Amino acid sequence: MISAKDIMTDEVIVIYEDMKIREAAHLMLRNRVSGFPVVNKGIGLAGIITMTDLFRIIDQASHDTKEGFQEHINKCKDLPVAQVMTKDVVSIQLDTSLNEIVHLLVTENKHTFPVVDNKRIVGIVSRHDILNAIFAYS
After folding, report:
1. Domain containing 110 — which CATH number?
2. Using one digit for the tens of pLDDT, what is the confidence trace for 93-135?
3. Residues near 4 by beta carbon (within 8 Å), at least 6 away in sequence
4. pLDDT (tens digit per residue) in 26-50
5. 51 and 28 Cβ atoms separated by less than 8 Å
6. Which of 51, 54, 48, 46 is nearest to 77 (CA)?
7. What is the number of domains present in the chain?
C-alpha cells in the first residue's frame, strides 16, 4: 500500500505567519510550488498559504470599486500571510494511504496536505505528488 511517506516531498519550506504576502508569492514562484505550510513561533502549524489564496486577492482587486486594481494589489503585498492564509488545514499522517489522500483531495477540496508526525511537519503532499505516484510509476 502506498502511503504519504512514500510520495511526500520531505524537504519542506515553511513560512511564518508574519511573512509578507509578496515574499510568500516570490518563494512560490522561485521554488515552483503551489503552497507552503505556515507556522507560528509558538504552536507549530497555523495554516497554509497557496496560490489559490493569492488569486483570491487578485479577484478581490478586480472587483474593488473604491480603489483601482493596482492600488489594491500594492496595499495587499505587504500584509502578513496570516491575514490571507487558509486556517482550516487538513493535515495527514505518514501512514495515510494514497486512497485516503485522494478522497480528502476530492471531498475537502484541498490541494496540498502537510504531513505531520507528533505535531511536527515532516513533509508535504501536493496534487503533483499524487498524480506522479499514480501515473508515473504504475
Report:
1. 3.10.580.10
2. 999 999 999 999 999 888 899 999 988 899 999 999 999 988 8
3. 92, 93, 94, 95, 96, 98, 101, 113, 115, 123, 125
4. 999 999 988 999 998 876 889 999 9
5. yes
6. 54
7. 1
